[in-house]
């Protein structure tokens, strides 16, 4: 197969697998063209459960404890090569067009990009005063900046400016910026590598072009807003009771499905446009989101299928026969797949042609919520998907659970003391040594960052 004309890595932030594939009312995935021309992975898992670790894994092919970008270590190691750096070495102009501040220089994820186009700096706020008030009320970290010199002098923080994408659509702006860079580079005789991040399926889930509630009554709308507040601030980590009631949890989950229904036609049309130009497009999600599964809320600190099972499509103009791969894979291997596509010798394998070589390993570090996270939530976790079972290790104990089915997740069961899936014949023997090493390294990493 020949080298693709351009490469687009397109991510819908926080998008759950079942938001795309599990809603019958939406008529399937909502991606008719993409489905008819793509290799679709039904068992893809992200390496991390929120944007920083999951995106860093896409950019490096490494697990979070290897690249170091997580809720405790906070920044990606500077000595690991990145996808953008590799693409630039291959002669591509590299552009990141993002609606999420976490993918930028703040955590070192800008490395290798010729340009980082922060979409919030290029769109006007639709409801500026409401936007500022809601964001400041919703995020304690930003409330603390009210009395800062920058705020008093009239300079909005980057965080506040970036949060415009929470309250209004920017997908059209992202796609327009992508088209402009492709056109400019084409005129210059250069190939393009584009990473695009869309925030419409991220909190607070865009059910309209600007922020809207979905409850029918005034009281319901107020409860919805309060529930969104508790969701994004993860107040459950600091108290013993769950402040979001079950009916509101279902409503929040439905918000993401509605957001995807709105976004899907635009994504499908953009993929069709890129495909017609001879470009390779990889579309998926960086991670999923939790709405009460396994007792978790929001997408930090967990290794659930809600937070790690993600949609993934590979649309290659050189081979666009529709295909479904049910073999479990890790999205971190998108890195190797794209290097394979451009003939980079550092590629280990492509999950498109050798999915059996991929190994879903999910990791999470506990989130220190304003210094108040309860002791019972202060643990790191690692989870393996092997033999049709998820094997999870936490605080030196093993747990197991089947993969989620149709959006329904079964709780992890604690395994008997001394039971080790690596030694009980449930792990493929050839992988035992590798997994032992991973578990040891993850334990060392956890001890180091917690210290």
Helix and strand layout, with pairings?
Blueprint lengths: L6 E6 L4 H5 L10 H6 L1 E7 L5 H10 L3 H4 L15 H7 L2 E7 L16 E4 L9 H11 L1 H4 L5 H4 L5 H5 L1 H4 L3 H17 L3 E8 L19 H16 L12 H31 L3 E5 L20 H4 E7 L7 E3 L3 E2 L3 H8 L19 E4 L16 E6 L2 E6 L2 E5 L11 E2 L14 H22 L1
Parallel strand pairs: 1-5, 1-6, 2-8, 2-9, 3-4, 3-5
Antiparallel strand pairs: 2-7, 6-7, 10-11, 11-12, 12-13, 13-14
Helix pairs in contact: 12-13
What does the model show?
- With 451 residues, this protein is an alpha/beta fold.
- The chain has a domain at 7-123 and 168-360: Alkaline Phosphatase, subunit A (3-Layer(aba) Sandwich).
- 35% of the residues lie in helices and 16% in strands.
- It has helices at 17-21, 32-37, 51-60, 64-67, 83-89, 128-138, 140-143, 149-152, 158-162, 164-167, 171-187, 218-233, 246-276, 305-308, 334-341, 429-450; strands at residues 7-12, 39-45, 92-98, 115-118, 191-198, 280-284, 309-315, 323-325, 329-330, 361-364, 381-386, 389-394, 397-401, 413-414.
- The longest helix is centred in the middle third of the chain and has 31 residues, at 246-276.
- The model is unreliable at 145-156 (pLDDT under 50).
């Amino acid at each position: 197969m020949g080298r693709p004309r351009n490469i687009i890595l397109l991510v819908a932030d926080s998008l759950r697998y079942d938001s795309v594939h599990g809603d019958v009312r939406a008529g399937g995935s909502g991606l008719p063209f993409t489905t008819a021309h793509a290799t679709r992975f039904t068992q893809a898992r992200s390496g991390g459960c929120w944007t920083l670790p999951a995106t860093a894994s896409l950019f490096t092919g490494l697990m979070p404890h290897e690249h170091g970008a997580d809720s405790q270590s906070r920044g990606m190691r500077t000595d690991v090569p990145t996808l953008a750096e590799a693409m630039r070495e291959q002669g591509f102009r590299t552009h990141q067009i993002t609606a999420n501040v976490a993918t930028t220089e703040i955590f070192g994820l800008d490395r290798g990009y010729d340009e980082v186009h922060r979409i919030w700096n290029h769109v006007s706020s639709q409801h500026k005063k409401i936007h500022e008030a809601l964001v400041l009320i919703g995020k304690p970290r930003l409330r603390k900046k009210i009395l800062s010199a920058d705020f008093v002098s009239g300079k909005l923080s980057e965080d506040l400016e970036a949060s415009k994408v929470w309250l209004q659509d920017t997908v059209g702006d992202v796609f327009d910026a992508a088209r402009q860079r492709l056109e400019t580079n084409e005129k210059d005789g250069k190939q393009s590598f584009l990473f695009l991040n869309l925030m419409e399926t991220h909190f607070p889930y865009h059910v309209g072009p600007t922020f809207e509630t979905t409850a029918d009554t005034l009281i319901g709308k107020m409860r919805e807003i309060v529930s969104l507040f508790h969701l994004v601030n993860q107040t459950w980590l600091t108290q013993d009771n769950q402040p979001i009631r079950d009916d509101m949890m279902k409503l929040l989950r439905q918000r993401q499905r509605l957001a995807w229904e709105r976004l899907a036609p635009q994504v499908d049309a953009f993929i069709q446009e890129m495909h017609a130009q001879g470009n390779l497009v990889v579309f998926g999600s960086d991670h999923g989101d939790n709405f009460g599964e396994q007792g978790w809320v929001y997408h930090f600190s967990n290794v659930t299928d809600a937070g790690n099972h993600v949609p993934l499509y590979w649309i290659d103009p050189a081979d666009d026969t529709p295909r479904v791969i049910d073999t479990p894979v890790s999205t971190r291997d998108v890195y190797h797949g794209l290097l394979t596509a451009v003939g980079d010798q550092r590629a280990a394998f492509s999950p498109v042609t050798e999915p059996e070589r991929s190994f879903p390993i999910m990791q999470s570090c506990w989130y220190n919520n304003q210094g108040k996270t309860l002791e019972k939530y202060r643990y790191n976790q690692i989870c393996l998907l092997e033999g049709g079972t998820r094997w999870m290790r936490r605080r030196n104990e093993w747990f197991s659970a089947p993969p989620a089915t149709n959006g329904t997740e079964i709780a992890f069961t604690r395994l008997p003391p001394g039971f080790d899936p690596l030694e009980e014949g449930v792990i493929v023997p050839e992988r035992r040594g590798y997994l032992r090493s991973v578990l040891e390294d993850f334990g060392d990493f956890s001890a180091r960052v917690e210290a």
